[in-house]
């Protein structure tokens, strides 16, 4: 499953996905060339198009709930409290901390 990363509710920043090799993020060309947008993280500059990691990138992990709220969300959604990917998919579509929201890409 791929996820669309939305910046400030109006710009398609790029695509985030997970596969057997890890996590991947790729900026949209239009986002990179837009002088009115900023990188989604200081660790993910617009000067580089694609990023790979064996763990969920810290800037995405940071928009997830923690503690008791995380436990409540995971219980309500029927997912493991350690499953950051599923929590990202099901809870970060609106009202997130910061300028990033996540939308599923229907394939």
Low-pLDDT segments: none
Give the SSE string: EEEHEHHHE
**Termini separation (Å)?**
8 Å
Major sheet, described briefly? 5 strands, antiparallel
> What share of the residues does DSSP label as strand, in percent?
25-35%
Helix content: 25-40%
Q: What's the rounded overall pLDDT mean?
A: 93
Oligomer category: single chain
Shape: globular
How many separate structural domains? Answer: 1
- The count of helical stretches stands at 4
Q: What is the secondary structure topology, with strand pairs?
A:
Blueprint: E1 2-7, E2 11-19, E3 22-27, H1 29-33, E4 50-53, H2 58-61, H3 67-77, H4 84-91, E5 100-104
Antiparallel strand pairs: 1-2, 1-5, 2-3, 3-4
Structure description:
- The chain has 107 residues and is an alpha+beta fold.
- The chain has four helices and five strands; from the N terminus they run βββαβαααβ.
- A hairpin with a 3-residue loop joins strand 1 (2-7) and strand 2.
Keywords:
107 residues, alpha+beta, five-stranded antiparallel beta sheet, 4 helices, 5 strands
């Amino acid at each position: 499953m791929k996820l669309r990363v939305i910046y400030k509710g109006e710009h398609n920043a790029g695509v985030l996905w997970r596969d057997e090799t890890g996590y991947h993020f790729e900026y949209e060309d239009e986002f990179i060339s837009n002088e009115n947008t900023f990188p989604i993280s200081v660790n993910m500059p617009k000067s580089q198009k694609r990023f790979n990691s064996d763990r969920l990138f810290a800037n995405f992990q940071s928009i997830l709930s923690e503690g008791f709220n995380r436990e409540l969300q995971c219980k309500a959604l029927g997912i493991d409290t350690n499953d950051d990917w599923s929590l990202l998919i099901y809870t970060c579509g609106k009202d997130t901390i910061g300028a990033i929201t996540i939308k599923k890409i229907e394939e």
